[in-house]
Amino acid sequence: MIVPYIVIFVAAVVVSLLVTRVVIHLARSMRLYDSRGPRKVHVTPTPRIGGVGIFVAMMTVTVVAMVFDRYMGNIFAELKGGLIVLFATSAFIFLVGLVDDLRGMRATLKLLGQIIAAVVVCSFGIRIDTIMGVDWMGLSWLSWPITILWILAITNAVNLIDGLDGLSAGICSATCAVIAAFSIYTGQLAMGMLMLGLLGSLVGFLFFNFNPAKIFMGDSGSMFLGFFLATASLLFATKVATLMGLVLPALALGLPIFDMFLTVVRRVLNRQSVFSADRGHIHHRLVDSGLKHHHAVILMYLVTLIIAGAAVLMMVLRGGGELIVFIVALLLLMSVFRVAGVLRFRKMFTQVQENLARSREVRRERRQFESISLRFREAWTFEQWWKAVRRMARRMDFARITITYRHGSEVRTMTYTNPSTGTCDDRLMHLNIPVRKEVGGGLEQVEIEVPVKEPLETIGRRISLFGRLLDEHSLADLPAELGRNDPLAGTDPRSKETV
Fold first, then answer.
1. Edge-to-edge strands of the sheet including 400-407?
2. Measured between alpha carbons, how far is 11 from 198 in angstroms, rounded to an integer?
3. Cβ(231)–Cβ(224) under 8 Å?
4. How far is residue 91's CA from residue 68's CA, in Å, rounded to a whole number?
5. Residue 368's CB: how many other CB atoms inside 10 A?
């Protein structure tokens, strides 16, 4: 009986069209626009609460169908309490995204909201308990973290790919279509209807979201879509072999998932926060390479359809054919990201090497700092303090260090030249560091010359460590009686000269 499926799809399209149009007028009257920025590609102020249209259409049509149509109500009854959990947690995620669209919210708070919703889903038994649907591959306690990771990954993958007009909605539409088709084919009618309802909501929204967009879905839409698809796929997976139930949405959403994975890797390698924004996503790279906005979107639509088709083919193949299809689909995805300039193996390998070398250097500097800090703590005379300063200068590869200090009414200077730097031809960085009176103990200024033969970050880190030593072990920390005498009394007179 195909009529109910057509009805729920068409009804969702109509409701989405009507609600989204109302939302556009409301957003414009309230000036709820998405601001322009370096990562944004739109040039005119555009409303960003289009997720309201998607959410309202999906929920309204589905609930009305369950309540007022006996046939559809009986079909949805097979999901039992799982459907209530799906709707309740998805509504919570929608509200979190809507607050972000209206007021702004830190990424960590949004992630916390997603984790809370995912934990609720798990607590009601909607989890990845087994792999391949057999008991001997049971996950036991690992089912919770794996399920939460699955939900967070899909939710944020859809959120991150929402960077061009119609892109996220189009990719999710293709995903809904293939899941709906396969669900109906395998007898999972309730899941098929859910996906058709969501598909209709997205199609209605796309009338206003395709380039040039009149409205964006915002986080309320992208987070809701990602979370709904992730959780619904778990419900679907409980009815079929778990692996098969998850491979279909995972491959259909392969493009945003792979983009999110590479985004996290890129930011980690660049030593940035994973929550920081950049223009390294595949849609940004395609547009920056010269593709027009709508051409880039259509290209990613085609890739999604091909990958989704491969996922469906995997579902029906047997005898090892599904593995071949999976490998081909994965290679296709990698090729697309490689051509777009997002996946650059050589650069990633170089960054890994640089980060490892930097980590080793930081650990070495930390050990040197701790060793010299001990020398400073053991200093009881000015000469011992000055000797520790010279040792630090050698360890940190400073070319020359000069201190200016006050003894009574007289201002004196002492200079140390590092013999290991010799007469190198490296350019020198000159720094004059005034010393705060409350920690100086008579020390007024420190001048440092550093060869510029290493990255400025490395030089700056060493200077920072040196400054910390001066703050923590200043002349003021020496015994008080020394301050009443010549700091150089009893020491080698040559210490007053350049040594």
1. 410-417, 400-407, 443-451, 428-434
2. 11
3. no
4. 22
5. 17
Examine the pLDDT at 10 and tell me if it is beyond 80.
yes
Residue 241 backbone dihedrals phi, psi, to 5 degrees: -55, 130
Higher pLDDT, 491 or 448: 448
pLDDT tens digits for 439-485?
555 777 889 999 988 888 999 999 999 888 888 887 777 765 444 44
Alpha helices in 290-344 (DSSP H): 293-316, 321-339
Which H or E element spans position 271?
Answer: none
Sign of the dihedral through C-alpha 91, 93, 96, 99: negative
Token pair for 249: 């949405």
Burial (Cβ within 10 Å: 0-12, 13-18, ≥19) of residue 328: middle
Residue 270: pLDDT band (50, 70, 90) is very high
Task: Report how far residue 387's alpha carbon sits from residue 23's, in angstroms, rounded to the nearest whole number.
Answer: 72
- The residues facing 138 across adjacent strands are 130
Q: Do residues 397 and 479 lie in contact, with contact meaning Cβ atoms separated by under 8 Å?
A: no
d(CA 154, CA 254): 10
The whole-angstrom separation of Cα 106 and Cα 89 is 20
| Residue tagged 């391949």 (tokens) | 132
- CA-CA-CA-CA dihedral for 126, 128, 132, 136, to nearest 10: -110
Distance CA 388, CA 374 (A): 9
Name the packing angle between helices 321-339 and 254-269 (round to 10°).
50
Structure tokens that stand for 482 in this block: 């020394």
Look up residue 287 and give its two tokens: 């547009």
pLDDT tens per residue across span 307-332 = 988 888 887 777 677 888 889 999 99
The phi and psi torsions of 52 (rounded to 5 degrees) equal -60, -45
| Better pLDDT: 479 or 370 | 370
Distance CA 3, CA 199 (A): 16
Q: pTM to 2 decimals?
A: 0.84
Contact status, residue 461 vs residue 450, Cβ threshold 8 Å:
no
**DSSP assignment, residue 419?**
G
Alpha carbons 307 and 16: distance in angstroms, whole number: 27
Both tokens assigned to 43: 């040039």
Q: What is the pLDDT of residue 6?
A: 92
How far apart CA 118 and CA 90 sit, in angstroms, is 10
**Number of other residues whose CB lies within 10 A of the CB of residue 185:** 12
For residue 349, give both structure tokens: 């390998």
Continuous H helices in 128-217: 143-161, 167-185, 189-209
Name the band, by pLDDT with cuts 50, 70 and 90, for residue 51. Answer: very high
